[in-house]
Amino acid sequence: MSESMVRSVDVHKRFGRLEVLRGVSMEVARGEVVVIIGASGSGKTTFLRCINHLERVDAGRIYVDGELVGYREKNGRLVEDREREVARKRAAIGMVFQLFNLFPHLTALGNIIEAPIRVKKVPRKQAEEAGRELLVKVGLADKLSVYPAQLSGGQQQRVAIARALAMEPKLMLFDEPTSALDPELVGEVLDVMKSLAREGMTMIVVSHEMGFAREVADRIVFMDEGVIVEEGSPEELFLRPSQPRTQAFLSKIL
Amino acid sequence: MEMDWLLAIRFDVDTVGDFLFNPIILRAMRKTLYIALLAMVLGVVLGTVLAVMRVSRNPIVSAPAGVYVWFWRATPVILQLLMVWFGLRQVIDEDIFRDNWTRFRAAVVTFGLNEAAYMAEIVRSGIQSVEAGQMDAAKSLGMTNLQALRRIILPQAFRVMIPPTGNEFIAMLKNTSVAFAIGVVELLNAARIQAAANFRPMELYTVAAFWYLVLVSIFSLGQAELERAVAVSERERPETLLSRALAIMSSGRRVV
After folding, report:
1. Alpha carbons A115 and A95: distance in angstroms, whole number
2. Chain A residue with minimal CA distance to B138?
3. What is the three-class DSSP state of A242?
4. Per the CB < 8 Å rule, is A149 touching B144?
5. Are B54 and B123 in contact (CB under 8 A)?
6. Rounded CA separation A19/A24 (Å)
7. Which range has the worst mean pLDDT, A32-36, A129-133, B150-154, B231-235?
8. How many Å lie between the alpha carbon of A211 and the closest alpha carbon of chain B?
9. What is the pLDDT of residues B162-184, one digit of tens each?
10. In B, which residues are within 8 Å of A93 by CB distance?
11. Which of B139, B151, B152 lies at the smallest CB-CB distance from A54?
12. A89 to each of A53, A168, B188, how far by Cα in Å?
C-alpha cells in the first residue's frame, strides 16, 4: 500500500505530427490533491485522458494503484489490454469533464445508477439508494427525477461528480470542471470538490481556479508544451516560481 | 358529339364505394401493411447491426457492411425481388426451402434486406450525431463499447433517426406495390386485377389510392407522436395534432 496512487513515467503522446506530451513523469500519493495548471495546448487535458486510457500513450508508463491502465507489459513492451480489462480498470477511476457529458436521455438519478447497475451489477434498489445519498451529498436531493436539460450548468456538473462517485473510485480526475460555467455557478461545484478533498479522495484536477488551487491543492504542477516545467506546494509555486515560463504564465492569470 | 358521349365510360362514384371495403381489396391492403411492417422490423434490426459494424475501426468488420450497403442500394428493388423469389428457387434445391418459400415471404425478405441498407446509413448518421463526450463519459465509468452503444449512444441516436426512418417506412410502404412483379397480390395488384375484371380502371385505382393515403396518413401521425414522446425536455417537445386536440379539450376555450 506504500505505492503511490498514480505513477507516470516518461509519457509521450502525439496526435499525427503534433507531439502533445513529451515525457511527463509524476507521482501522486494516496489522498493527495494535485492541480495541474498551464496554458491551453500545454497537454494537461491529454495527460489526464491518458491516465484512464481515453487516449493511448505512445511511450512511457502510467500506473494507477500499481497497475498499468490499458496495457500489459510483455517482454518490456506495452501490449494493449482487452476491452473488458480496460473497462474494469477504468471503472475504478472517476472522471469529470469540462462539458459535464451527462446522459441527456436519463434523469439525474438515472445518470448516477446506470454504471453501478450495468458495470458493477449492483441491484437496482441498492444503486438507487446509494444514488439518492450521493445527490444529497452534492446538494441536489430534490433533482432526482429531473433531466439534465432542466438543470443549470453548476447542477449538471454536480450530478456528473455524483455519477463518477457512484462507482466508488479510488482516484478522481477533473478536466477543467468549472471552465464552462457561469461565474456565479463556479462556487457550488468547487465546494463539492473541496469536501471530497477533505474526505481524503485522491484527485488530479486540471483547472484555472487559482483560489481553489491555493486552498485545496497539496501540490501544483505547471505544464507547458508537453512537459512539466515546475511543481511545488501552492505557496512555492504561486509566490516564488523559479522558472521563467512559470513566472510568465502566472503573471498572465493572477 | 352524341357518339363520343356514348363511348366514354363515365367515372362511377358508386363503383368506388362498392370496392372500397371489398374483402379482396381489404385483404390485399392488409398484405401490403404486413409486408411493410415485417420488412421494416427486419430492416431496423439488420440495419442497426450493419451500422455498428460500419463504425468499427476494424476493416474486417466494417468492410462487409460497406459492401452490403453498396449492393442493396445500387441495384433496383425489382431486380432484387426477382433474384430473391425466382433466383433462390432455382438455386436452392432443398424441399424444406421450396415448401416454405412463398411469394409473400420473398417480398418481406427482399424489402427487409433492401431497407436494412438504408437503415444502416440512418443509424450510422444517428450514432455519429451523438457527441464524442458521451462515449468518453460512458467509458470513464467502465462501460464496454457495446454497453455504451446500447445504453448511451443508441437511445440518443434513436431520436435523430425517427424522422428519416419515418420517411423510409412511408416510401417502402408505397414501394411494396412493386411486389406485383413476383405475383404478390398486394393492394395495387389486387386493384389492377379487379380493374381488368370489371373494366373500371379509374374507379379501382382510386380505391387503391384511397387506402395508400389512409395508411400513410396514419403512420405520419404516429411518427409525429413518437417524436413527441422521445423529446427529452418539455421545451423541445413538438406540438402534434393529438397534443393540440388534448390541450383544447382539457382547457375548454383555450386557443392553441
Report:
1. 13
2. A115
3. coil
4. no
5. no
6. 12
7. B231-235
8. 27
9. 999 999 999 999 999 999 999 99
10. 140
11. B139
12. 9, 12, 59
The C-alpha cell that represents B168 in the structure block:
423510409
3-state SS assignment for residue B11? coil
Q: Do A87 and B140 touch (CB under 8 A)?
A: no
Interface contact flag, B142 A84, Cβ < 8 Å? no
d(CA A116, CA A109): 12
Q: Are A59 and A10 in contact (CB under 8 A)?
A: yes
Contact B128/A at CB under 8 A? no
Element (H, E) at A105: none
Residues A218, A191 contacting (CB under 8 angstroms):
no
Contacts of A180 in chain B (CB under 8 A): none
Question: What's the average model confidence in pLDDT over A119-139?
Answer: 96
Q: What are the grid coordinates assigned to B57, written together?
A: 475501426
Q: Which residues pair with A9 in a beta bridge?
A: A61
- Cell numbers 398486394: residue: B186
Provide CB contacts within 8 A for A239, sequence distance 6+.
none
Classify the complex by whether its ipTM is higher than 0.90, answering yes or no.
yes
Q: By the CB < 8 Å criterion, does B132 face chain A? A: no
Cβ contact, residue pair B141, A114, below 8 Å: yes
Judge whether residue A69 has pLDDT over 60: yes
Minimal-distance CA residue of chain B relative to A120: B142
Q: What pLDDT digit, counting tens, does each position of A173-184 carry? A: 999 999 999 999
Report CA Rg, chain B.
23
The DSSP bridge pattern shows strands A219-224 and A33-37 to be: parallel
Of B128, B115, B127, the C-alpha closest to B69 is B115
Tens of pLDDT, residue by residue over A24-66, are 999 999 999 999 999 988 999 999 999 999 999 999 999 999 9
- Tell me the DSSP string of A27-85: EE-TT-EEEEE--TTSSHHHHHHHHTTSS--SEEEEEETTEESSEEEETTEEEEPPHHH
